[in-house]
Amino acid sequence: MSKRERILSMAVGSLLLLFVVQWGINKYRAAVRTRTNLITQLREENAEQQQTLLEGAYAENQMDEYIARSLPSNRERAQSDYQSWLLEMLGSVSVSDPRVNPTTVTPSGDLYNRFSYSVDGGTDLPSLVGLLHSFYSKDYLHGISKMTINPARDRSGMLDVKMSIDVLALSAAPSDTKPVASHSWRTEPDVSVYLDPILNRNFYEPPNQAPVFDGRKTIEAIVGKSSTTPLTFKDPEGHRLRYELISKSDQKGTLEQVIGQSTVKLDPRTGTVSIRSNEKREFNLLVRAVDDGYPSRVSEQTLTVRIVDPPPPPKPVEKFKFDDAKQTVLTALVQGRQNWTAWLNIRTRGETLKLAVGDTFDIGSLKGSVVEVTPKYVVLESDGKRFELTPAGILAEAAKTAKSIPQAQMDPSIKPSDEEGVAEETEIEEATSEEGAILDEEAVIINQTVAESR
C-alpha cells in the first residue's frame, strides 16, 4: 500500500469513527431526554393525584360541616323543628303577630330536600335588624330568598315584613340530629355592631363627618366689661351648627354658666360667647358644636378664658402732612434786566415762586434761601447745606444731594478788586440794548414751556 493510500484509508477511518461517536452521543441525549420527560410526567401525575386527594379531603370536611348544619333527614321532623325555631326566634325579637307557614318541599335527587317557608309579621326598624341578626347567627343551611318591607298602615313607626325562606336537609344527615347550637362565624355575636351603621345610615350623601374646631383656643375678656368672641367651628359638609356649653357636673348642654364672679353666655345659633367678669382670673370652658346632618355629629373643644385688664388707650395718630417739596419743580431760569430768577412751580398749591439771589423760600419740609442762579442751574441753601437744582428737577429730590458749606464760604470777604469786577459786569449788562434783553427773555420762556411739558 502506497503512502497516499495509507493516508486516504486513515482519513476514511477517522470519519467513520467520528460518525460512530456522534451517533452514540445523539443516542445518549435522546435517552436522557426521554427519561427526563418521563420523570416530569410522573411528577405532574403525582401532583394531580395529590390535588385530587386534597380536594377530596376538603370536600369531605365540607360535607361534614354541611351535615352538622343540616336539618334531620326525616322530612316531618325537619319541617317541624325548623318551623318551631322560626316562631321562637320571631318572638325573641318582638315581632308582633308572627306567622310561619310551610309552603313546599323540593327534593334534589338523593342529595337533599329543600323546605320553603313564608314568614310575615309586624316590627320596627331596630327589631328588624335584630331579626336578621338572629336569623343569620343560627348556622343552619338556610337563607332569605325574598323579603318585602312596607310601612304599617295603622301603626306609626312600624313595618310590615314578609319573607320567603329556604332551608336544606341533607339525605346523609342523621334522622335524629339535634338542632344547631353553635353561633355562625359569619356574624358578630353582638347585634349593636350592626345597629349604628344600619339605623344611622344616610342613603343620599356620604357619611356625615363631625364639625372641626378652627379657631383660637384662648379667649381674652376685659374685667368689668362684657366681651364677645365668636366660636369658629367648620363643618366639612356645610351643615348648620348648634352650639352648647357643657356642664362639668352632668355633661349636659347649657347656654349659660356662672363660674365664680364670671358669667358666660352662648348664642346657640351664631356661636357667639359673651363673658362678663368682675375679677381677673383664668378658667376653662368646654363647648360643643352639633351639626344637623344625618346622623348628627358632635365635636367638643376646651377653651381657656383669661380675664385681663383693659388695654392702654391708643396713642394719637399724627395726621399725615403732605410734603409740598416733593411736588415742587424748577420750571424755568429767566434772565431779566438786572439778574436771573428761578421759577419754582408748587403743583400742590398751583403757585409759582420767582426767586432771585438772596430770596428766601419755605416749601413743605424745606426752608432756605437762593445762593446763585445761572442759566443752567440754581444753587439753594437749607439747614447749612447747599445743593443744585436743574430745570425739570424736583426740589425734595435735589435736596437729598445737599452738602455742608465750608466755614470759609459761610462768611466770604469781598476784596476791592472783586467789587470792581462786579461793577464792570453790571455796567456791561446795563449797556445791553433793550431789544437783546427781550429776545433773551423770550428764549428762556420757550425753555420754560419745554420743561413744563416734560
UniProtKB/TrEMBL annotation:
Q: Which GO terms describe its molecular function?
A: calcium ion binding
Q: Point to the regions of Acidic residues compositional bias.
A: 419-435
Positions of the Cadherin domain = 231-318
- GO cellular component assignments: membrane
Q: Could you tell me the keywords of this UniProt record?
A: Membrane, Transmembrane, Transmembrane helix
Q: Name one GO biological process term.
A: homophilic cell adhesion via plasma membrane adhesion molecules
Task: Please state the span of the N-terminal signal peptide per the UniProt entry.
Answer: none
Give the start-end ranges of region Disordered: 405-435
* Name of the protein in its database record: Cadherin domain-containing protein
Q: Which organism is it from?
A: Novipirellula aureliae
